[in-house]
Amino acid sequence: MSQLADLAAGIASGAIRVVDLTHTLDPDFPVIILPPEFGQCARFRMEEISAYDHRGPAWKWHNISMSEHTGTHFDAPSHWISGKDVPNGAVDEIAPEQFVGPVVVIDCSAGASNNDDFELTPEVIQVWEAEHGQIPADAWVLMRTDWSKRRGEAYLNMADDGPHSPGPTPAAMRLLVEERNIRGFGTETVGTDAGQGMHYTPPYPAHFILHGAGKLGLQCLTNLDQLPTTGAVLMAAPLKIKNGTGSPLRVMALVEGDA
Amino acid sequence: MTNPLSPPPKKNPQIRSVVPTQPLEIRSRAAVGLTACAAEGRFALQTCAECGAVQYPPRDACCNCLGVELPWRDITPYGGLLAETTVQTSVNSYFRERAPWRMGSVKLDAGPTVLCHLHGDIEPRARVKLINRLDKAGQGVIMALPMERTPNMEDDPILRAISCDPKHRRVLITDGRNPNAPALVKALKDAGATMIFVGESESWRPNPNRSQMADAEILPLDVTDTASVKELAGEIGGKADILINNARFIRPGGALARGDTGWARDEMEVNYLGLMRLAQAFGPGMCARTADGVNSAAAWVNILSVNALANDPSFGTFCASQAAALSLSQSLRGEFRASGLRVMNVFTGPTEDEWHQPLPPPKVMPAGLARSVVQGLRDGLEDVYCGDIAKEVAARHAENPKVLERELTMGGQG
Predict the structure, then answer these.
(1) Among partner residues A46, A47, A158, which is closest to B206 by beta-carbon distance?
(2) What's the mean pLDDT in A240-257?
(3) Which residues on B lie below 8 Å from A33 (Cβ)?
């Protein structure tokens, strides 16, 4: 059989599982909150056009609206000022091969369970690599924190000094991008950066370093606890929006066996 | 004294809710002037510009000199009761359902003798104070009250019928994040509202107001989300006797301030389309319950900027959304008219909040706004101007809207 036929047969038999890493697009799902004088991320909204009624007798459909960065979403390099001049930096320009690829998961859930500001540091990555081997080039790296299991105010975890949620340090991002040459970085939190990421140098290091190097971002992921540490394949294709800086999308992983 | 209203019993689910009926709506064009004054709670009558004679009933030519210039002027509202009768039945369903109904003739100190509704506590041949109010048909009617306050006087059935008193009613305040929400809750509680529901958007964000609204039930509501509005209407639409729409999105600046339509869109989503979503979800149910006993649906309240009347370019896009909301409120008046559900617009000047922080006083404080809302409901008004700036802008608008427009759009030399 061909490799693709094997793949299809594996999915059909259950030997390869498809894990959905996507939150439902819900009007009440949190979005990033910026100071009120800045432009804001639009929430997901859905308006009925017709529902088998006088507005359209045999069909139901909706108009939907949202930001490029609402819900489980993809960040293209052009999202950040550091990536504004990266070639092919918009979602419609990225080569489609980039949307399917290997993924590794760094489990930070234990640390994040007792420290809302848990940092992914080079040391954490080195400990991970000592056990699982070096992070392969051109892989997606997902930071598991189990943050997706939080609900309500606990998700943004907003305090008077801003949100508190785990994320990577600048040194960790430089290690992943400059030394490991990863494809992209993904999190369960509302952004790829820590809630307090604005206080690092550079501010928002995940955004700044990833996108400056033409790398990709994923955030608001869920079900990372269903992924193996290594060996899964991630499928994350954003909508083909002309000059788009990101897109809500369905993120899925192919997982072999019972991992 | 008036018998105090008892808190209404729980509704008997086996009995059909009373269908709203109305007093007569038809008036001459001249008589609608009385309605216009009643909408603001003013006691005014036509006064001849030539001879000064005060006119009643409204007419097209002076009863004294046949002059045709008869502007409405505020009149001293006192007089003496001449004669009275109590109507025991009527061919009009509205009055038949509410009989007996006390009426009388009052000789005004200002001259004319008027026919009016009588409060139950007025003694024969007593001195009285007249008020001009909107009836359930939304037309101006005159009612005589005792000169001094009497116990429970607001519970008089005729007075209750021409007010939207919050006492014993259930209120929905749509935006628990607005800085004015705690003051509205307190004022309505103090006014005797039995239940106060407060909508709160985005429960995933902290709401510093929440701890100050212990007297309210806080429920999820986001006026920009149709599904959320429909869901709350499904749950409590049958209990919303008074709806106060205080949801507001405001950012400074006119059309050129930012070069995009982002905030203008948010302003329209909250201030205009939010009102429409609320009306579509809550309006029909409220209209069906305007005759539903002591806690019948009574009023729909919009809190608007007075610059809905004339744009202030320093908040230009916001004012445009307020003008849209004002226009929609007029449509709602027409759409609610047959039910008797009152639409009351409370116009404010700059409010005491973060978006008006650099502006000098006077600013409308939350407690002052809440007082205006409650007083407007008690008086059954359609148009309330809260604070000196709102009153001033409204007066200038009434005098000459073009002059006001020019004054508000100075080029930096003003």
Answers:
(1) A158
(2) 97
(3) 205
